[in-house]
Design goal:
By secondary structure, this protein is an alpha/beta fold. It has 36 helices and 17 strands. It binds zinc ion (ZN).
Length: about 725
Amino acid sequence: MRTVSASRSSKITNMPNPSPQTVLTNTFGYQSFRHHQSDIINSLINGNDVLTLMPTGGGKSLCYQIPAMIRPGVGIVVSPLIALMQDQVAALKQLNIKAAYLNSTQSVMEAREIESQLQQGELTLLYIAPERLLNQRTLALIGEIEIALFAIDEAHCVSQWGHDFRKEYQQLSVLHEYFPQVPRIALTATADKRTRDEIIQQLALGNADVYINSFDRPNIHYELAEGQNSREQLWRFLQKSHPRDAGIVYCLSRKKVDAIAQWLSNKGRTALPYHAGLSHDERQANQSRFLREENIIIVATIAFGMGIDKPDVRFVAHLNLPKSIEAYYQETGRAGRDGQPANAWMAYGLQDVILLRQMLQAADANAQYKRVTNHKLDAMLSLCEMTTCRRQALLAYFDEDLAQPCGNCDNCVKPPETIDGKIAVQKALSCVYRSGQIYGTNYLIDLLRGNNTERIKQNGHDKLSTFGIGTEFSATEWRRIYRQLIAQGYLLVDIDGHGSVKLTEKCRPLLRGEQAIAIAKPREEAPAEKKKAALKQAVQPWNQTLFDALRELRMTLAQNQNVPPYVIFHDSTLVAMTEARPETENEMRYITGVGEQKLARYGAQFMAEIKRHPLPELFDNSLSNTVNETLYYYAQGLNIPQIAIKRENSEDTIYQHFSDAIAAGIIDPQALLDLNDDDYALIINTIEYVKNENTDGRLLRPVFEALEAEYTYNEIKCVMASY
Ligand SMILES: [Zn+2]
């Protein structure tokens, strides 16, 4: 069916057979491959099948784009979502790569035009929806042309256990039957061992080269907070960490999506809803604003996000529990694809736990399906309730071992305190037992706290031995205890819909007081401030004006072409421009993300903008960024103690920065330290004197002592740095 052409006429340049490295540098503007990209590309060029698991933001698409450009024929990319296709094609066109897509948004005329280009061999890459590919007409059409490779993106859709299951994906094995010589690559950003095996089996990839990358997304900070009044918590999180950023807020129901989007809008943020209850046009419009404008918040059900390739999503917030760790990992993975710091934040409470347990137990599904999904929910719940490093647990779920705690999750940054919960748990459980195992947690908490409600009186439960035995804890604290007991499987939630709880076998040793149980105490507000502040500094403050100007230029260019801004350049490329401030084409070429096409298209405009915002003289030095940041605040008029507070550093560290700047001749020590001429001369003379006396090189302490502790070590250090 496929004629292997001997000639390998290159589609990129006039050069025959460019190497993957040449394509990477000249076309895409990157200096080096990441992860297993290079091995994957070579496997495909050599005609092998590949299965790759690569984290979001790991550079998946280059793995098939580059071989498609090097091998003869067209690379066919199967993708389940239309927005992703459109963005990728727009991005490829920016690079002058002949790419197109076939999907249901096109008119018949448009589709015919693409098909004719395909027949003429004019395309390098074709993106296509699975159902479109699988129809007989399309299969017949591609049977007549030369095919470089098949790329099956989001391959986990093949798994019937997964939350993204798509029936057509299971039929993609026909590609192997019809086109046995064409190499295939299956890609996914998330798959546990079971899903991985399923992909291999369903897609007949038994002989594929398998490349599994680390699932770790070190730039994402994980925080799973317990949620009383999660809406207010969300607002505080947004105000504190993301006052101006784009992000996604996930909710479980359409009703909640609408309410939260409205509430955020009333508070002055641009928040747009997205769920299956909106019309197609509304959904498209909101998604397109999210992609094309800056600082938009999308409030969505899980229907939103797959295939959204926006690199600068700075946060993903969950107001409900996801159903599995895969779902959580994938949804949070939409944050920080550009590798810059991002937050995965969640607030969940007792009601979420009860609701999900009920939904799963009530679901109309076979026993095996229920077993698997229940197991997945258990894993998700234990991630929530754990008190050790979240990232270690998350990675362990994907069979990956992280040797040390990560230092970038809530439990690492601020380890939760636990208390011995033996007695409290006994009380909570016996209260369930004594009242007959037919009540929900609110009723039980009233019982424990001795609230003599109408219902309790009617039932005569004010006579129970457990009535009022739990006054030492607030209702909120009891709710936390019940949540942990349900999450850990000590209590079973009834599926009658009223949320009554029953004891399970597992809780016997707890009731008998034979098993210790630790109960996590609530975390106090404002964790991780320091870490976030340290991570947040992507654009240096003295470069901020230039960065804003470059972003504005990017927005104008994007609007003129009706493409999302990041298709022009990623934020990380703009940040690199503010740091390197290229003035010539050759310097521009070395900015990561600037290839030959983009250099030709945009280089001059961006260089002109850079020229319009020259680097202030103070920062035109070769000192480190951290020293310059201290200088920045100094130039803003802050004194040393103020700078130390602002930067959350010790004053000693700030003095060290200044002595570096003094040594470089940028700062005058006399002005900095507020020393008059006599003081200054005295210190200088003393240094000279000690220098002549002491030849072993130790100066600081002898000078300090010779000056009889009149001046601090830091002052002396700064003066010494001046000559
Ligand atoms: Zn951690």
